[in-house]
Amino acid sequence: MPKIDLDNIKPRSGTIYPEIHHKEMEGRSSLRFSDAAGLTQFGANITILEPGAKSSLRHWHENQDEFVMVISGTATLLDDHGETELSAGECAAFPAGDANGHTIVNKSSGEVRFLAVGARTPTEVGWYSDLDMKVTIDEGGYAFTRKDGSPYPGDDT
């Protein structure tokens, strides 16, 4: 049956980032309903941010588009242009190759939920705007390095 029962999807927390960034990602979880439905061409998740939490380290993708729509609460988009408040029903899009690093943070006192949809390409390179870090994704998984390709400190993956 195509209907996805969100009540049967357990929230997922944690991060694939190197260990030294794990604490920064506390208070974030997601409901990965594209995985639950067996979708392979794009990811679709509901990201849940507790007060003070952020969705990711500020980043951009070379090959993957991203789209977000706030479902509940008031989120703050941080990108190269500054801060933009996003309320329930408002959207933001991040085209592949646009080097405008972005993240969503919760500066409010209540929970924020947003739908995040992104492409799933077989390979990808992501860049972290505020760090000397990049991620390379291929059939072997995720590899975090410095932007010049040298080892990233604290990467135990």
Question: What is the terminal separation in angstroms?
Answer: 37 Å
List how many beta strands DSSP finds: 12
Largest sheet, if any?
A: 5 strands, antiparallel
Counting copies of identical and different chains, the oligomeric state is single chain
Structural class, by secondary structure, is mainly beta
Number of helices: 1
Low-pLDDT stretches are none
Q: Approximately how much beta-strand content do the residues carry? A: 35-45%
Report helical residue fraction: under 10%
Overall residue-averaged pLDDT value: 95
Radius of gyration: 15 Å
- Which sequence of strands runs across the widest sheet? 1-2-9-4-7
Give, in order, the helices and strands. EHEEEEEEEEEEE
- Principal-axes geometry comes out as globular
Overview of the structural elements:
The chain is mainly beta and 157 residues long. The protein has one helix at residues 33-36; strands at residues 28-31, 42-49, 59-61, 66-72, 74-79, 82-87, 91-94, 103-105, 112-119, 124-128, 133-138, 141-145. Strands 1-2-9-4-7 form a five-stranded antiparallel sheet. A four-stranded antiparallel sheet has the order 3-10-11-12, with no helix packed on it. 23% of the residues are buried. The model has no long low-confidence stretch (mean pLDDT 95).
